[in-house]
């Protein structure tokens, strides 16, 4: 079994083809798909998709690249979804310091408030950590949560170890399939297998074997897994089993 721990099934690139996407993913061996939201406007869409399609599991949160249009009222709506809609995590939340135009102070306010909600509801979090690993870690040390997944991890081995100490798994996907991704290759070889989970971030982060501008899809996860297993020099079945167990240990509601 494979689990895609990060897939934006409601993205505009997919139109209304979710049934086909999910069927193709299941045919390829992807049994479960975690679907994070990014803003209040898509909380209900994510909920509806996950309610309609077995094996799709929702997370609710406000993405750092959407906080400029978010309000304190949105946090109240988020609380309602966390209380009533059976999420597997709070997410996608975090910080993004790659895009300079985004207000860092506003990002940190919403991140802190969502960490508080995760702690209130005893939920793990799905973290966005682009160019912000150290600042995210700083917040996590101040506001301890249940753990979760550092999505699309691309930090140092030292930063990876700090996330692991705080109860986090690290998400790897299409970015690691490129020959030039030497940092990611080094991390994949050095990190304990118990710390790794798989993701597509579909429709984003297309793997090396997909011709742009075609979107990434959850059905590509098995081939991504094959490439990552090759980097670790282990059988793909070993990687699939371990990463699924890792995901279940963090997102415990998946095994309910």
Describe the structure using short key phrases:
256 residues, alpha/beta, TIM Barrel, eight-stranded parallel sheet, 9 helices, 8 strands
Fold and architecture overview:
With 256 residues, the chain is α/β, with parallel strands linked by helices. It is 41% helix and 14% strand. It contains nine helices and eight strands. Helix 8 (221-232) crosses helix 9 (236-250). The longest helix has 17 residues, at 104-120. 46% of the residues are buried. The mean pLDDT is 96.
Provide the fold topology.
Blueprint: E1 2-4, H1 18-27, E2 30-36, H2 43-52, E3 56-60, H3 72-84, E4 89-94, H4 104-120, E5 125-128, H5 133-142, E6 148-151, H6 157-165, E7 168-172, H7 182-190, E8 196-198, H8 221-232, H9 236-250
Helix pairs in contact: 8-9
Short account of what is shown:
The protein is α/β, with parallel strands linked by helices and 256 residues long. It has helices at residues 18-27, 43-52, 72-84, 104-120, 133-142, 157-165, 182-190, 221-232, 236-250; strands at 2-4, 30-36, 56-60, 89-94, 125-128, 148-151, 168-172, 196-198. It is 41% helix and 14% strand.
Through-space gap between termini: 16 Å
Question: What gross morphology would you assign?
Answer: globular
DSSP summary, beta strand count:
8
What number is the mean pLDDT?
96
Helix content: 40-55%
The string of secondary-structure elements, in order, is EHEHEHEHEHEHEHEHH
Gyration radius, rounded: 17 Å
**Major sheet attributes:** 8 strands, parallel
CATH superfamily: Metal-dependent hydrolases
pLDDT < 50 runs, ≥5 residues: none
* Percent range for β-strand residues: 5-15%
- Number of domain modules: 1
**SSE-based structural type:** alpha/beta
Specify the number of helices.
9
Q: What is the third-level CATH name, the topology? A: TIM Barrel
Q: Return the CATH class.
A: Alpha Beta
Question: What would CATH call the architecture?
Answer: Alpha-Beta Barrel
């Amino acid at each position: 079994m494979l689990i895609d721990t990060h897939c934006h099934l409601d993205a505009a690139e997919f139109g209304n083809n979710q049934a086909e996407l999910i069927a193709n993913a299941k045919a390829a061996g992807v049994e479960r798909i975690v679907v994070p939201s990014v803003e209040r406007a898509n909380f209900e869409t994510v909920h509806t998709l996950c309610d309609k399609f077995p094996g799709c599991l929702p997370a609710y949160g406000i993405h750092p690249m959407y906080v400029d249009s978010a309000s304190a009222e949105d946090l109240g709506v988020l609380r309602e979804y966390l209380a009533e809609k059976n999420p597997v995590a709070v997410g996608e939340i975090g910080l993004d310091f790659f895009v300079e135009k985004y207000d860092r102070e506003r990002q940190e306010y919403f991140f802190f408030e969502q960490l508080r909600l995760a702690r209130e509801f005893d939920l793990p979090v799905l973290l966005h950590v682009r160019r912000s690993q150290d600042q995210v870690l700083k917040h996590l040390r101040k506001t301890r949560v249940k753990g979760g997944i550092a999505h699309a991890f691309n930090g140092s081995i030292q930063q990876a170890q700090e996330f692991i100490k705080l109860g986090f798994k690290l998400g790897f996907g299409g970015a690691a399939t490129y020959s030039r991704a030497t940092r990611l290759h080094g991390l994949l070889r050095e990190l304990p297998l118990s710390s790794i989970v798989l993701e597509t971030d579909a429709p984003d982060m297309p793997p090396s074997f997909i011709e742009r501008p075609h979107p990434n899809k959850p059905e590509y996860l098995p081939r991504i897994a094959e490439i990552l297993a090759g980097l670790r020099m282990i059988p793909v079945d070993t990687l699939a089993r371990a990463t699924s167990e890792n995901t279940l240990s963090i997102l415990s509601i998946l095994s309910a």
